[in-house]
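The freezer alarm interrupted the setup, so I double-checked each line after restarting. Inputs confirmed:
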Amino acid sequence: MPKYSFTLNGEKVTVNAPGDLSVLWALRDKLGVTGPKYGCGINVCKACTSHLDGKKFNPCVTNLRDVAGREVTTIEGLAKDGKLHPVQEAWLEQDVAQCGYCQPGQIMAAVDLLRRTHNPTDADIDAIENVCRCGSYFRIREAIHSAAAKLRAQGVVEPTAVGKGGELAATGLGTGTALTGAAALAAAAIVRAVRSDDDELDVDLDVDLDGALGG
Amino acid sequence: MTAELTPLSPESEGTSRRRFLTYVLAAPTLAVATTWLGHEASADGLPVVPSNPEMAEDYDLGDFLIQAQKPTESQMVVLTVAKDGRVTCQVPREEVGQGITTSLAMIVADEMDVPLEHVTVTLAPARPELLFSQITGGSNTIRSMWTPLRTAASGAKGALLAAAAEELHVDASKLQLRNGVVVGGGRVIPIGELSEAAARPGLRPAPVQLKAAADLKYIGTPQNRKDAHLMVTGAFKYTNDHEPVPGILRAMVRRPPTLNGTVKRVVNAAAVRKMPGIKGLYVIPTGVAVVAETFGQALDGKEALVVEWNAGTVDDFDNKKIKASLEAVRTPLSPAPPGATVVEGEFDFAFVSHAPMETNTAIADIKPDGGQVWAGMKTPIVAVQTIEQDLGLPSGSVTAHVIQGGGSFGRRLFFDGALEAARISHAAGKPVKVMMTRVDDMRHGRARPASSHAVRATVADGQVVAWEHRTAFVETDWRHGLGEILTATGTGYGDPPGVPVSIGGDFTFSQSVFNLTVKSPYNFGPTTHELNETPDQFHTAAFRSVYSPNTRGADEIIVDEVAKLLKQDPVAFRIAHFRDPRYTAVLEKCAELGHWGKKLPKGVAQGIAFHAEYKSITACMVEIDARNPAKPRVTKAAIVADYGIPINPRGAESQLLGGLADGISTALRAGLHIDKGLALEGSYSQFHYARQRDYPRDVKIHIMPANQSEPGGGGELGVAAAFAAVANAYARATGKKVRSFPLIFPVDFKPFTKGTGSTRVQPR
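Predicted 3D structure, all chains:
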């Protein structure tokens, strides 16, 4: 099994897994880091939004091999020494969370936006595509504006030249299409399966397939 | 635009004896608003024609559920005081984002006189001995827990005071519990130090006496969610984040290409079993379970399977056939009286996926003689009873742990995930965690049933003299019953447990819920709302606000059309016909908050609607920009709600914000296209629920102060009025009648391959 090492929330980690395993499942099932959530698996709901080298990315459509040697930050790595990030504080002040499931991704998307500008416009906020099925959007907007105001008041120097539309271009990671590692693996498996016809099996409801196959 | 109100004229007589205040708005250019100020007994024409009270007006679903819990009410709450003074209150309810663990803690803290931060509310596992008392639904948690919780908290306080009285050798009446400490007799004792003594049998506390409203400190004050810190740091654990026992395998289920299809033959089992990480394949009633080391591997295996399927239950259904089938069972409107003017409309609503962010997920560890399940479940008693029956396990052998859920909107009334996980764990002989992919969750999960409506208002001499509303819904699955197997079985007409959709329907149950929830707030003469159902076997469940968003929503659209016919203002017209002065107060406040009547450019319009359910009341007003009718955006909203007693206004606002999202989505763009027995939509890129860009930037909410002796329901209140306000605004902006929902509903995507649920074809 190949090994891939990267920095996760400031610590070096190594994962033994195929290179095309999605980072989401590497984080959740291999490393026990469960802040990034599964919501769709295809970079549509954005519940897994995290940061790669300081810019937002979606682990569900990123291959493990593409983060090797790089720096991954999940929601768990946002607070420093127990002190919440101003965006997290704003989320608490505005009482944003309802079911809370999308909020790690929402917060990581907001932090990414505020790294690009401390003066986000409402149009900038509209461009955040993260789904909140509970409909907490109004408070998300208020929280982003209030965190931005706090950052401006603190005089935190605004980063420059990162540019708008800071969605980390997935093409740079070789995952620009939705053909994820897992899916590619499955596609190959189907090709193999279709070619082999020696393993057909009739089954009835409730029959334990493994049992029927003798193991 | 922030509107500063400057009275232009204190009062001006409307042409129809209605009084308005006119305001100049502080705006870049002159804008004038009229605000409803009051009303005479009637609008133009004859006095209003009183309506018959509908059942839900006096006795509603919540009353029924509260009555059903009476036999076990005294056992519902388990309240403990730890030695450090922390109070834990275990309740037989499920939290899915409504904020009940915060609002219930407020009730306990108030009644007990302990600091809110010392109170933790936890979710009870399935407690079959509670019978009908462990169901989370009908916006009923606050209503149903109000008395049991206060009684428990007050009882605990009495015991602590009695224990302190014994220790201090004074009469308990000389002591007080204040802010977590007992004060009196010259001493201050933290309650933690009394918790052991207070548990002593034979202690004689004073009889429970609940506090007067004036003595409540937390109730009615805005409180932020107690669990928010865990959520914003990623530390909060949903079902999928738990590892309650070692060695849990991951499983996914390959599902049929049509709803309720069954496995005929697995063609390539051996090949799939050789794939990396695959631990086993099992045929279960819902498909082929693929058990693996990781979800990624389970997904690979699931997609690699080649399966031949038997037909499902609705293979030849599409949206057109569903509509025809609904119209066929809908009772025709009675013949209109000769010479009467009628305002009529026929409406249809597509299926709507509940689509909570957390897909159906569950953990099960089933051994030959019993075991455990973990999942977000609103009816855990019937969950364990069904699992035990399904697997032939002894009664009482399965424990169900209720895990806080990532959204529900009605979905988690059912325990599909837990049942599936139990079956797979039982077959595999190992603990498993089962998760639906989003595609499967949207297609094979549950949905709000499609519906068809005919509404008619009969108008004579400028008054509505009769209101008739005939509905037909695809059958709503109520087989969770009242949360236990007796009533669950009663709803299923003898279905074997675990059959995916009831055969023949549970129409009686549906009728009861319909009649206990839908009511007209108006005096429109004889008023009827009637339900019919088709027995078509889709995967349905009650959706937030159940029948009301469609039924009351269609009502509110026709109300606007009647007002238009009578050349009356929609706000004034409603107020003139309201049956309750509380309704008037709410709608007037909403019109004021949203600056009703403001002049707007062509293609931009306001819309307003009203709804009352579960003893609570709301009005919603929106402004919509439909200058491009194909791409409307709701730009502003004003919402007012009256809960009788608002427990946590902050949380109530959250629920109203959510109801607004539901209203915007289901009015404009979110629905499911059924095609050959399965939804085409498979993810949020295709099922167009509102995103940030669809949500108004300007939302104002006002919560009415307490004015009743008991709180009403809150979790579902916001949907129907928001839906109808958006629909009415769209109609006013475009000049078109609104009849088919969602209004903008093209198949603007390439569907995922059916059967595999493969996400390899992704259009974005």
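Quick read of the result. Chain A has one domain: 3-210.
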